[in-house]
Design brief:
The protein is α+β, with helices and mostly antiparallel strands and 460 residues long. It contains eleven helices and 19 strands.
Length: 460
């Protein structure tokens, strides 16, 4: 449920403005614009500029670079949800002649396909896509840099392949599919493949002097699904809310949650950042952020969502380097979340209760480990360790009378009630583990049986 909009406190607004002012000044950005959404509502925007009277606003377009990849990933997930492909399918099943037939769609989404990071020279971000008319021109001869599926290695050509996959399955251009299936349903009217006024111009700032050089803005051609888009703070905040909550018109909540789940092995020593399916996942100040960063010559961008806090932030600048938009967006999330913590929804009792399910609640034992079982809405259950750490999980009810684990060790595992012939409960079976009402209950069906002499003291 989306909470009613509550305007930020003056102190919070000042802290947000101070953060972007510092970023624009220290990063020497010609302009810098940012916004924060809370509980589904755009709650604050701010900007700084080097030109008096020409400050950008939340409706000014900037190029967003690799944030485009998240849009492309959503389109692929839509194909999966419609049953037109499976993420475990090899690319060759749907797109032939690529020369990388053994990689799967999931590996391309998570950057674990072992492909090179960039297209062959010349530098693809500063040259027209017409110089790479075919996929072979994007991949090149040395496209394999790592064994398939073994490590995360960011690949722009990988997302070019996903864009071509979308076109092959849909029978329409990536741009048309994007507009029809994401931009129009979500109302992202200021997101486009080409700049539309008002938009910022891209600049390079000299590293050792306060002077500028205009950057070219090229149509990336086949590489467009990896970084072509232009967008605004307003549109990106709306898109970020979608990444947190889903939207049945585009992608259901369970599928966007799947996108936010780590899909690749972490680099050795890199325990604070990983990648899902088209989204980056980072840990900052104890907070999990999902989203994406982006850059193309003349522009840098950052978008982060804290699902737990209900806060989204976007930061955009028109400089090739300097302003750390990703760090700023993360800081904006932190400022709001710490200064004005999320107000929880009021507790409400369940509208109705199944007495048989209610009878299952309370303490259960796996061996000598104690757990509590709680009843949730929609016949869901939650298993909680009662002492120390343990394998707790939430479970969703299934039509066959079982439950499926949703998180932690038991994610995807089946919980079922095992009954005696007279219908009374014998024990709970969770992935073959037996939970009884008493520790090692003699009549509870514990595998291996229970010593008939029962519990005893240690003879002296």
């Amino acid at each position: 449920m989306t909470s009613p909009f509550i305007e930020f406190l003056p102190a919070t607004k000042r802290a947000l403005m101070h953060r972007i002012a510092v970023a624009q000044a220290e990063g020497r950005a010609p302009s810098f614009v940012a916004g924060v959404a809370r509980e589904g509502h755009l709650a604050w925007t701010g900007s700084r500029t080097s030109v008096d009277g020409h400050g950008p606003d939340a409706d000014t377009q900037y190029r967003i670079g690799s944030i485009t990849k998240t849009f492309t990933a959503v389109l692929v997930m839509r194909l999966r949800d419609e049953g037109l492909l499976d993420l475990s399918d090899p690319l060759e099943k749907h797109l032939s002649g690529t020369g990388v037939a053994d990689v799967t769609i999931a590996q391309l989404l998570g950057h674990s396909a072992g492909l090179s990071a960039e297209a062959p020279a010349p530098w693809w971000e500063r040259t027209p896509g017409s110089q790479r008319p075919d996929l072979g021109d994007v991949l090149g001869e040395g496209s394999r840099t790592h064994p398939v599926g073994r490590r995360h290695h960011y690949s722009n050509p990988g997302y070019t392949l996903l864009g071509s996959l979308i076109e092959a399955v849909r029978g329409a251009s990536w741009e048309d599919v994007l507009r029809r299936e994401i931009l129009e349903p979500l109302g992202l009217s200021r997101t486009s493949t080409q700049p539309e006024a008002p938009h910022a111009g891209g600049w390079a700032v000299h590293p050792w002097a306060d002077v500028l050089l205009p950057e070219p803005s090229e149509d990336l051609g086949l590489m467009a699904p990896a970084g072509q888009l232009w967008s605004t703070v307003t549109d990106l905040c709306r898109f970020a809310v979608f990444l947190a909550e889903g939207d049945e018109r585009v992608l259901r909540e369970s599928s966007v949650r799947e996108m936010r789940t780590p899909s690749v092995p972490l680099e050795s020593g890199d325990w604070d950042a990983t990648y899902g399916l088209g989204v980056q996942i980072v840990r900052k100040d104890g907070r999990t952020l999902v989203g994406h960063t982006g850059s193309l010559p003349g522009f840098v961008a950052g978008l982060w969502v804290s699902v737990d806090d209900g806060v989204t932030a976007v930061a955009l600048a028109n400089a090739t380097s300097g302003p750390l938009t990703a760090a700023v967006a993360a800081d904006l999330v932190g400022i709001v979340s710490e200064a004005e913590p999320r107000i929880p929804e009021p507790w409400k009792p369940l509208p109705e209760v199944d007495q048989e399910l209610l009878a299952l609640t309370g303490p259960w034992y796996w061996g000598t480990y104690s757990f509590g079982l709680r009843l949730l809405a929609d016949r869901g259950l939650e298993l909680l360790p009662l002492q120390g750490s343990g394998r707790g999980a939430r479970f969703t009810a299934q039509e066959d009378g079982t439950w499926t684990g949703q998180n932690g060790y038991y994610a995807g595992e089946t919980l079922r009630v095992v009954r005696r012939e007279d219908g009374t409960v014998l024990h709970l079976d969770l992935g073959s583990f037996v939970f009884t009402r008493e520790p090692y209950e003699p009549e509870g069906g514990v595998p291996g049986g229970v010593d008939p002499d029962g519990w005893r003291g240690l003879p002296q």
